[in-house]
Amino acid sequence: xxxxxxxxxxxxxxxxxxxxxxxxxxxxxxxxxxxxxxxxxxxxxxxxxxxxxxxxxxxxxxxxxxxxxxxxxxxxxxxxxxxxxxxxxxxxxxxxxxxxxxxxxxxxxxxxxxxxxxxxxxxxxxxxxxxxxxxxxxxxxxxxxxxxxxxxxxxxxxxxxxxxxxxxxxxxxxxxxxxxxxxxx
Length: 185
Hints:
alpha/beta
């Protein structure tokens, strides 16, 4: 079974991280980190309780615990997704500023050449944001703004969320049925 770290930061779109946890249940061992800002955003954007979200993870880590297992390269994982990824977190990752467990775990994935997916949730973007994305990409991260595909004719907000989460699971080679795949015409 794969071992995936899921970081949820305070950017709008926390439902993406929650949906990823739902989709990964039974398919991967998940190590969850929710930032303090994400906890506030969860209460603003959803009706989810933090305890319920945490119950979907295999292991929950405190974002302030820089001594957690996932802060070391000797703890093997298949990678990490930060979903959503705030610009503040993108900046920390791009500059190796490891002040929190989310950014330390991301840095470990990069140094160990493990997959790191940053679902940057901001728009519009200025040149500084774009430079940070380029810097993160040059270091080995996959920059993945959750941009919906419309070829599957989404009918609900869930369809749009599922498409982005499914595309991220594809990056980790995790089977799912979150969206209808394009088969051509």
